[in-house]
Design a protein that fits this description.
Radius of gyration: 18 Å
Bound molecules: iron/sulfur cluster
CATH architecture: Alpha-Beta Barrel
Distance between the termini: 28 Å
Number of helices: 9
């Protein structure tokens, strides 16, 4: 299965002034979804997305897809409008999973109940992706995340109670976090009940046009080297329960705006090194 990135046209309360205007300090103008399609009707976005992915794959091999509403906060807006967009994606037979990126402070009970109905109606999985990044409130403050761990815990419980799957995003490499802080985040997530469905582990990318980028230009704080990243990553992976699916072990930030660490732009080398380190550990 391949993932195609879609847009719902939502903004983010951490950017539109509801919570703040600056956004999370690492977040680029694209709202953490720099590879998403242009804002077209969902069926057109899906057609374009599939065409793009299939151009790189062997012909007619019956691929299936995950519709991923990635950029900004995709449950931040009118529930009925959003549910109708999500349904447009689920109607497509080639789509087997709907994945929705959002914030835990933007998921109403009404939205959860509508998503549950959609999941039952189409008998397809719905994943909710929450950008937690770290369990430490000091980090939340420093990255201007705009909500506390308690808010995450509450949303997690409500989503799981409704039978929806939850994937949590974690960033490895904030310059003020020690290795033990990062492991504490993953340990916390690995001990959640009910068990966490999925996790995305992501290297901290410093991008142009972000607050973090400005700080880096001034201070040149430490960013992880590839061996440092691999070493922490392996320790994180070992903490996770077998039921938690690892959806991402790194990421490649858009090269045009990537400031640091530059080694992360060489995806092939990064993946080969991670493979080697994981095998040897
Ligand atoms: S919540 Fe997501 S979209 Fe909003 S500022 Fe933070 S990273 Fe960006």
């Amino acid at each position: 299965m391949y993932k195609i990135s879609l847009q719902s046209g939502c903004s983010c309360p951490n950017r539109d002034g509801t919570i703040s205007r600056g956004g999370c300090t690492f977040c680029s103008e694209g709202g953490s979804g720099d590879f998403a399609a242009a804002l077209l009707p969902v069926d057109e976005q899906i057609e374009l997305g599939i065409k793009m992915v299939e151009s790189k794959l062997p012909k007619n091999s019956g691929h299936k897809f995950i519709a991923y509403f990635q950029s900004y906060t995709n449950t931040y807006g009118d529930t009925q409008r959003l549910i109708s967009l999500f349904e447009d994606a689920l109607k497509d037979e080639r789509i087997l999973v709907l994945s929705i990126g959002t914030r835990p402070d933007c998921i109403s009970d009404d939205m959860i109940s509508e998503l549950r109905k959609l999941q039952d109606k189409y008998d397809k999985k719905i994943w909710i992706e929450l950008g937690l990044q770290s369990v430490h409130d000091e980090t939340a403050r420093r990255i201007n995340r705009g909500y506390t761990l308690k808010v995450f815990d509450d949303a997690y419980r409500r989503l799981k109670d409704a039978g929806l799957s939850v994937i949590v995003h974690v960033i490895i490499g904030f310059p003020w976090e020690e290795e033990e802080d990062i492991l504490a985040t993953v340990r916390y997530l690995s001990e959640l009940t009910p068990v966490l469905d999925g996790i995305k582990l992501q290297l901290l990318h410093v991008l142009k046009g972000t607050k973090l980028g400005e700080e880096y230009e001034k201070e040149h704080f430490h960013v992880l080297s590839l061996p440092e990243y691999c070493s922490i990553l392996v320790k994180c992976l070992k903490l996770l329960p077998a039921e938690t699916v690892v959806h991402r072990i790194t990421g490649d930030g858009p090269k045009k705006i990537l400031i640091a660490p530059l080694w992360s732009g060489d995806k092939k080398r990064v993946l080969n090194t991670i493979n080697k380190v994981v095998r040897e550990s």
